């Protein structure tokens, strides 16, 4: 369809909102209540445009049509925007727009030369009861975003509206946020345009006076970020959209780091279990005890009595050091990761990814069809935002498949949403495979390169008995795979891995221009799948957990090993057999509290430097943004190497060597 915007004609192949049509072509109009995660509401009435035959209308909840002519910079439109903004500012406190200039509402006040008008604030509208969230409803502009995101996206009812019209007021459940059922997701902070709901650390320590470039490692997207520092404290993290589009929309990266960095369970000195209590000891003493335990175990039981488990992401340089320590000095192959414990056959899937290459995240909007499988919006929100933006702007078809009972924005912002339980998901995969194979829509030569017995493989697929409901679903999915390239983003579940491999190979052989990006939700230590080389890649997680139970000394690197484990009961049983467990972690967690004999404090990603691998094969740099007493894992492993008779390694040399192992990126 053809649409004129400010006198210039544009072509669109899909019906999208006027606002998204404007933004897709670099034309910005002010918004306050609009957020891509929420259904358009139009309450602020700032996104006004003039449309031929319709007059002045809101652009966020009206759609383009063929022949439409849109004017965004009309004097009448600008006058109405300013008047609407002035009404919102009438009951807003004076001074905040200069104190917090980066708030969306304050940016608009400054743009239009306005300020608040309220001189005295109502102290009864302050709420400091929550440890992470500060509330000052004097600053509320009644956009209702907090109410809507809490109910419609998160599935909670923490925020409510009382009274009506001019007297409307947003209140927390049970009057105080700290007494409510809030789960501390901080989505309400993220969608609040005025700062009425704000991050407590910004309030306590002040707005950032400088930003430091780094990368977030809380998921394998490994988004480039800018870390805001105030009074030598980290107070804010924002995705750097100049390097990765829509990364600023990630609620995990923006807020969940606070749960670790400012945790009450942070430890700054090594702890040694003494009876049922912990005793503080010096770092040197802790390393000496650990080195002696390793040496005694090797002497008495052999090198295979010692092992390491990685439960959090560590830098590539640290992987190099760990390999050197374990394989060259201790002379064992006992390095495990949380993904080895959670997933059978996951290495087979990632060996295909290594060969075929995933799609770059910045190229998502170039995809003709995107297939999202699993709860991507919750665990990888930046990536989910990229899907939604590609769909909202009419660039891509979007097919969403998951087993989520709660609402997700992506359910409505897609062409097809299919609810499927895990067992049903495998049946859907098989239905798609069977249809493509039976219709002869595949490249036999391609499949022959990737399966052991091509004829047996094809016969097996053809013999699948597809139930009617899954046949209908498969037809629905395939009807929307009409634009190339195709990209599959899938949160891996153990039960689906073998069938997922089959699905990808058959789709690839049928459409050719197909990519797959697996995502890990439980224990996302992506790098381990490419760097830790195991003697037997096909060991089941049960065999690995049993192996761990036979160790005498185990060193766990990272926190939440038991929490992330999908085989918690079996793992706890094995860990309980080990004579000595040491954990290297920033916090004392469940594993350390009940199973470890020693905890050595390590850094968070804000206090270290190193390189990490993103899930789309980019090398990301993490920079130390805060100087804080304590050791990085690189230093701890190095000090252990020296005590076991090795030589200190340099980071530059470690990175150089590890890059040679990653020559596929």
From TrEMBL:
Residues 131-160, 173-202 form the 4Fe-4S ferredoxin-type domain. GO terms for cellular component: membrane. Residues 209-264 form the 4Fe-4S Mo/W bis-MGD-type domain. Keywords: 2Fe-2S, 4Fe-4S, Iron, Iron-sulfur, Metal-binding, Quinone, Repeat. It comes from the Archaea. It holds the Pfam family Fer4_Nqo3. One of its GO terms (molecular function) is NADH dehydrogenase (ubiquinone) activity. GO terms for biological process: ATP synthesis coupled electron transport. The keyword Metal-binding applies. Its cofactor is [2Fe-2S] cluster. Residues 1-76 form the 2Fe-2S ferredoxin-type domain. PANTHER family: NADH-QUINONE OXIDOREDUCTASE SUBUNIT G, RESPIRATORY NITRATE REDUCTASE. This is Putative anaerobic dehydrogenase. The lineage of its organism: Archaea, Thermoproteota, Thermoprotei, Acidilobales, Caldisphaeraceae.
């Amino acid at each position: 369809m053809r649409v004129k915007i400010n006198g210039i004609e544009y072509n669109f192949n899909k019906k999208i909102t006027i606002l998204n049509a404007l933004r897709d072509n670099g034309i910005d109009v002010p918004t306050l209540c609009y957020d891509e995660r929420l259904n358009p509401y139009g309450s602020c009435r700032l996104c006004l445009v003039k449309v031929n035959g319709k007059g002045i209308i809101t652009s966020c909840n009206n759609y383009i049509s063929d022949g439409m002519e849109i004017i965004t910079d009309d004097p009448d439109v600008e006058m109405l925007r300013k008047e609407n903004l002035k009404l919102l500012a009438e009951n807003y406190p004076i001074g905040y727009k200069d104190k917090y200039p980066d708030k969306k509402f304050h940016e608009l006040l400054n743009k239009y030369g306005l300020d608040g008008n309220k001189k005295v604030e109502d102290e009864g509208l302050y709420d400091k009861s929550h440890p992470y969230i500060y509330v000052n409803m004097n600053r509320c502009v009644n956009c209702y975003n907090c109410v809507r995101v809490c109910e419609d996206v998160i599935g909670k009812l923490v925020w409510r509206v009382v009274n009506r019209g001019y007297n409307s007021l947003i209140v927390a459940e049970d009057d105080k946020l700290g007494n409510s059922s809030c789960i501390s997701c901080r989505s309400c902070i993220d969608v609040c345009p005025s700062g009425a709901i704000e991050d407590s650390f910004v309030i306590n320590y002040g707005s950032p006076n400088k930003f430091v470039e780094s990368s977030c490692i809380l998921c394998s997207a490994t988004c480039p970020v800018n870390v805001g520092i105030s009074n030598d404290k980290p107070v804010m993290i924002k995705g750097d959209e100049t390097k990765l589009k829509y990364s600023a929309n990630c609620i995990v990266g923006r807020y969940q780091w606070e749960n670790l960095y400012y945790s009450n369970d942070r430890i700054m000195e090594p702890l040694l279990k003494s009876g049922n209590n912990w005793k503080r000891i010096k770092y040197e003493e802790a390393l000496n005890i650990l080195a002696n335990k390793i040496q005694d175990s090797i002497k008495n039981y052999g090198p295979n009595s010692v092992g390491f488990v990685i439960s959090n992401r560590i830098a590539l340089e640290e992987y190099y050091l760990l390999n050197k320590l374990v394989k060259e000095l201790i002379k064992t192959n006992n390095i495990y990761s949380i993904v080895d414990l959670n997933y059978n056959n996951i290495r087979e899937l990632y060996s295909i990814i290594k060969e075929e290459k995933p799609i770059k995240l910045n190229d998502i909007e170039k995809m003709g069809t995107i297939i999202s499988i699993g709860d991507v919006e919750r665990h990888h929100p930046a990536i989910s935002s990229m899907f939604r933006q590609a769909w909202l702007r009419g660039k891509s078809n979007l097919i969403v498949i998951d087993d989520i009972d709660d609402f997700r924005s992506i359910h409505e912002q897609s062409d097809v949403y299919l609810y499927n339980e895990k067992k049903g998901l495998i049946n859907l995969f098989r239905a798609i495979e069977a249809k493509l194979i039976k219709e002869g829509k595949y490249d036999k030569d391609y499949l022959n390169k990737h399966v052991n017995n091509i004829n047996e493989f094809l016969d097996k697929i053809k013999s699948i008995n597809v139930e009617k409901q899954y046949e209908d679903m498969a037809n629905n999915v395939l009807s929307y795979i009409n634009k190339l390239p195709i990209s599959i983003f899938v949160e891996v579940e153990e039960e689906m891995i073998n069938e997922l491999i089959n699905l990808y190979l058959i789709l690839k052989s049928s459409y050719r221009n197909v990519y797959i990006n697996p995502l890990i939700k439980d224990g996302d230590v992506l790098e381990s799948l490419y760097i830790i080389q195991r003697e037997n890649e096909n060991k089941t997680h049960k065999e690995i957990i049993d192996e761990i139970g036979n160790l005498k000394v185990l060193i766990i690197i990272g926190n939440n090993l038991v929490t992330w484990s999908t085989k918690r009961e079996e793992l706890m049983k094995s860990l309980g057999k080990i004579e000595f467990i040491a954990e290297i972690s920033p916090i004392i967690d469940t594993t350390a509290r009940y199973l470890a004999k020693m905890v050595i404090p390590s850094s968070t990603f804000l206090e270290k430097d190193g390189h990490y691998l993103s899930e789309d094969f980019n090398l990301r740099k993490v920079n130390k943004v805060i100087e804080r007493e304590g050791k990085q894992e690189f230093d701890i492993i190095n000090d252990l190497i020296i005590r076991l008779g090795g030589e200190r390694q340099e980071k530059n040399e470690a990175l150089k060597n590890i890059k040679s192992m990653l020559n596929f990126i």
